[in-house]
Amino acid sequence: MTATAQRRFTDRPETTRGWIQRAREVAGILAETALARDRANETPHEEVRLLKESGLVTLLGPREHGGAGETWQTAYRVIREVARGDGSIGQLLGYHYLWAWAARLVGTPEQIAEVEQLYTGNEFFFGGAVNPRDNDLVITDEGDTLVYRGRKSFSTGSKVSDLTVLEGVLEGTDTHVFAIVPSQQEAIVYGDDWDNLGQRLTESGSVEINGVRVPWAAAAGFVNKEFQPLTYNTLNVPTIQLVFTNFYLGIAQAALEAGLSYTSRHTRAWPYGGDNKDSAGEEFYILDGYGDLQAKLWAAEALVDKAGEEISAVLHADREALTERQRGDVAVRIAAAKQRVIDVGLEIATRVFELTGARASSNSVGLDIYWRNLRTHSLHDPVAYKRTEVGRYALLGEVPEPTWYT
């Protein structure tokens, strides 16, 4: 995989269209071995190296440090394209983009400049240990230094990351502190216990934080040990919820493409219907089925693109200008997009078996990977709550209060 990447990626695209095409090329490389790699369930060092060699890791990085200087609207399209080749790697890339943006979300101007130069110039890859359902990491204040301790059940990116975003609470307070630290250090111990139904190559297992030391100067958004709050700080959740939505969408697109390909090459017409056809492409129920799924997918794509356009405009605007209402309007649109993609994606990943036929259930075909990947990550937070957010917005004109999941 790496040798192929090195031969192909000797330059960097100069346009948005070029970066999306680059993502498609990466997806094509990943797709060739996606099923075998999923079953092997090995740490995706080579896959992350491919993301680095292709330039996708620094897509959002400033141009002055060697990044592409692209927008989140482009990043969402890139995540989707990569996920068409491999859902796990699409997730890893999407989480990387979110954590690479963490300094912009909550940091001071000086911290933003330092982090963006660090990760862009070195092509560093991000992971994160910020699972809100676990107990918070406990932070001890030792004067000029903060010390993080505790355990998190999930740490997506873990062993393949260069930098990790930590979040914890100052001991004896309710003050949350984010910090970016080197991933490979003795005080961070990865559990190697990620062995789930789907998204198997995301390195999302547990992590023990045993005394990670961070200077107060690196506490994101703090000046003289006081946090400087902005509504913009709360965009982390809608931003990553649309990350989820886009790699779900990429998986759904790949599932439909796989079904169409198999049907056109292998599915046979049913010979006992009374109106027998010569090929599967003439079967009414197959044409009806694919037409229904394609129409639903196109509609979901349009909604996701609209949401991506809206939040990208907010993310790249003046941080101090964002209002709570603007934030809420964007979050609701993303909630609507996410629920649509989950419903449509799971329907495609299930019904595709009905349209391809019994032989397509062979393990050698591997159509199960799409359902497994979608079903696994779409359980991240209950989709019913996303529907409720949209319902409150439509019926009562209310926008969701910012939380760890809204």
From TrEMBL:
Question: A single GO molecular function, which one?
Answer: flavin adenine dinucleotide binding
Tell me the GO BP annotations in alphabetical order. L-leucine catabolic process
Residues annotated as domain Acyl-CoA dehydrogenase C-terminal: 243-380
Does the keyword section mention Oxidoreductase?
A: yes
Establish whether keyword Flavoprotein is in the entry: yes
Q: Where are the transmembrane segments?
A: none
What sections of the sequence does the record tag as coiled-coil? none
Q: Which UniProt keywords apply?
A: Flavoprotein, Oxidoreductase
What InterPro entries does the database record attribute to this sequence? Answer: Acyl-CoA_DH_C (IPR013107), Acyl-CoA_Oxase/DH_mid-dom_sf (IPR046373), AcylCo_DH-like_C (IPR036250), AcylCoA_DH/ox_N (IPR013786), AcylCoA_DH/ox_N_sf (IPR037069), AcylCoA_DH/oxidase_NM_dom_sf (IPR009100)
The protein's superkingdom reads Bacteria
Q: Where is each Acyl-CoA dehydrogenase/oxidase N-terminal domain found?
A: 30-113
Q: Which protein are we looking at?
A: Acyl-CoA dehydrogenase
